[in-house]
Amino acid sequence: MTVMTNRRTLLGVAGCALLMAACSGSSTSASAPPLRFTAIPDADATELEAKFAPLAAHLSRELGVPVEYLPSDDYTASVEMFKNGDIQLAWFGGLTGVQARQAVDGSQAIAQGRTDELFKSYFIANASTGLERSDDFPTELAEFTFLFGSPSSTSGRLMPEYFILEATGKSAEKFFGTLPTFSGDHKQTALMVARGEADAGALNYVVYDDLVASGEIDPEVCRVIWETPAYVDYNWTVRPEVDTDWPGVSSAKLREVLLAIDDPELLAALRRPEGLIAAENSDYSSIEATAKALGLIR
């Protein structure tokens, strides 16, 4: 009887210990601070919030910690959120990624879309201008009103401005004879040109193609008149404390989880149906050099 009682007691203690360990593990995960991310608002903010909520839920499941999406008001705000530690991860454009990594020592670009190695901008024009598609830069644009997207956009400002300079030898301000006008985001650029509120503009080619596919703009009215040469663009960038402040989470693990995403709904949030590939800071050295040459960063 004594042996049996002791055996039962030991089994009971062992069971309790296992239960306590399991509970302790789940509470650690549940009580971990949320890992927060944002994305540059290159389209309608409400639309982005709806798209990124499922991605946040997916990252939370895969990483074992709470993950939240925080919307940003504009491109500059997304960089400030990263700089201040309000977010630990961001889906940046090429330029905003460079700005964020300059502001936070030890931050890393960890992933990009497969298309981001060879990204491009479209120069578009309202049909009323009479401008047609050309392989050569359309110098006639100097006669028309022109829109950039966000002041900190790679595909909607930085690279279009660089290619204007390369093709004409003039800054955008001198080429157009006026200070740059900004719509705020790629979608607004396309819609304003389509409505005739501006004659022409430059934007992210993926956003334009999506707007045509959805029927929101008519390509016969809002025409592509020139495509830029390729350059590197969007990226996931992470702050260094991800490697220390979240048990079981690291920038390497985060990269692994992002690269494994194959759910079309999650990839659609990024407009990257082809999936993601690894990236590193040095991939964006050309963007940094261009931004410095144009005086957009130091």
UniProtKB/TrEMBL annotation:
UniProt KW keywords: Signal
A single BP term in Gene Ontology: transmembrane transport
Pfam families: Phosphonate-bd
Gene designation per UniProt: phnD
Originating organism: Engelhardtia mirabilis
InterPro entries, alphabetized: ABC_peri_PhnD-like, PhnD, TAT_signal
SUPFAM superfamilies named among the record's database cross-references: Periplasmic binding protein-like II (SSF53850)
Signal sequence, renumbered to the chain: 1-32
Domain of life of the native organism: Bacteria
GO CC terms in record: ATP-binding cassette (ABC) transporter complex
Protein name: Phosphate-import protein PhnD
Family, per entry: Belongs to the phosphate/phosphite/phosphonate binding protein family.
